[in-house]
Specification:
76% of the residues lie in helices and 0% in strands. The chain starts with a helix and ends in a 5-residue tail after the last helix. The model has no long low-confidence stretch (mean pLDDT 88). The protein is mostly helical. It has 2 domains: 2-60, no CATH class; 174-419, Tetratricopeptide repeat domain (Serine Threonine Protein Phosphatase 5, Tetratricopeptide repeat, Alpha Horseshoe), CATH 1.25.40.10. Helix 1 (2-14) packs antiparallel against helix 2 and helix 8 runs parallel beside helix 10 (217-237).
Length: 424
């Protein structure tokens, strides 16, 4: 819209309608400043100088020229700040997309190093709301990768408030609030803030009504994919698996409707979540159906975190179904996969030997011994912040304890969720 208005300024000026052109230019300036459109404002300054020149600087005090120079300098400083923040954000996200969560101290050190930039020290020192948004955006992403969920939650909360308080400056980017809100719901779920997550999820589903009167196919797709993922994560994290599997019909319908437009990685994540819900609800046969659907998807990097967990969940499902012949074959495949990758996740390094020992066990005592050894191998993972993702995708300790105690897996997950420390 602002570009069209600038074009009208040009047309009026060409027709020598100078007063009308100046009036239109004032409207452009007002709107551009309201929405922090820096490049438009620089164009406005260029036109204002051109108009001064056109009238031979008649009645123009030097103070007006000084003000134009100051404003131009300020705009360029704000743009330089945004450019540097955007560059730092891009470099950080490139690292995150390549490696995901930090898995060792070296990756942790690399992430901390990326935050050592003068513009990422104090948001109050930044010049514009957009710069402050980028500040919190970068910090929340790095905190997520470092498994510092409380810090991540605080930065997401700050960005949500910023986007709501400065809504007029971000009217052309409604997806920013959509993304921040969905990320905050996910992190709140992982922190055990289930009431907050449910409240925010209701708000999330109503967001499209605030933006457009006409249906937006892209927005409907995002609401389905992100909303479904968040709701399934909330049920799984809180151990309410029986309630979560009720979403199966809606998920099937949504995948049929939007499947071709969803990325393979997004489809993989949704299939994994339903497989885990079915597994937790005690339906290994239905879990296997969704697990096969996930692992047979084309176009998913086999090194992706969700694919790794899908492979390992698939092994546990086959164990529950007592598919021992097939499990032997799948174990060989898994071992070969990690050997070729030369990077065996710590959970896989604990699970695969346990499954081998379970397959060998001939007595109840031997099975019990294998379970105890597996539990002992899992304990260090529970206490390692870099391994927390294991317990968000799949809670192996609750599964082991369900086998050792005879209590249901879902009941133990609910107990663990209730005992989680709440974020401030």
């Amino acid at each position: 819209r602002l570009r069209r208005m600038l074009h009208q300024v040009e047309l009026l000026h060409q027709r020598a309608l100078y007063d009308d052109a100046r009036k239109m230019l004032r409207s452009v300036r007002k709107l551009a400043r309201k929405h922090d459109r820096h490049t438009i404002l620089l164009d406005v300054l260029g036109w204002e100088r051109r108009m001064l020149e056109q009238r031979g600087y008649a009645g123009t005090p030097e103070e007006e020229l000084d003000e134009l120079l100051r404003e131009s300098s300020t705009l360029r400083q704000e743009l330089e700040e945004l450019d540097q923040l955007w560059d730092r954000k891009s470099r950080i996200f490139l690292t995150l997309y390549r490696h995901g969560h930090a898995r060792d101290k070296d990756q942790l050190k690399e992430l901390k190093q990326l935050l050592r930039h003068p513009l990422l020290r104090d948001p109050a020192a930044l010049r514009t709301p957009r710069a402050r948004f980028l500040y919190h955006h970068v910090h929340s992403a790095v905190a997520w990768a470092m498994e510092d969920l409380s810090t991540c939650h605080q930065h997401l909360k700050q960005n949500q408030h910023l986007l709501e308080e400065q809504a007029e400056r971000f009217t052309d980017e409604p997806n920013l609030l959509f993304s921040v809100l969905s990320n905050r719901i996910y992190v709140a779920t992982r922190l055990g803030l289930h009431e907050e997550a449910r409240r925010l999820l209701k708000r999330f589903r109503l967001l499209p009504l605030q933006w457009r009167k006409a249906p937006d196919p892209d927005l409907e797709l995002k609401v389905f994919a992100t909303g479904s993922s968040l709701e399934m994560a909330l049920y799984a994290r809180s151990g309410r698996f029986d309630e979560g599997v009720v979403l199966e019909k809606a998920l099937v319908k949504g995948l049929e409707q939007y499947g071709e437009r969803l990325s393979p990685l997004r489809q993989s994540g949704l299939c994994y979540q339903m497989a885990y819900l079915q597994f937790g609800a005690g339906h290994p046969d239905r879990a296997l159906k969704w697990s096969h659907r996930q692992l047979n998807l084309k176009g998913v990097d086999e090194g992706a975190e969700v694919h790794d967990f899908g492979r390992l969940l698939n092994l546990l499902i086959h164990l529950e179904l007592d598919n021992r012949d097939l499990l032997t074959y799948l174990l060989r495949n898994a071992e070969r996969h990690y050997r070729e990758r030369n990077d065996t996740p710590r959970f896989a390094a604990a699970l695969i030997p346990f499954l081998r020992e379970t397959m060998k066990a001939r007595t109840v005592e031997e099975q019990h011994t294998a379970l105890l050894a597996f539990r002992e191998a899992l304990e260090p993972l529970r206490d390692d912040p870099l391994q927390r993702a294991v317990f968000d995708h799949l809670d192996p300790l609750a599964w082991v304890d369900s086998k050792l105690t005879g209590r249901s897996f879902a009941e133990l997950v609910r107990e663990r969720a209730a005992s989680l420390p709440r974020a401030a």
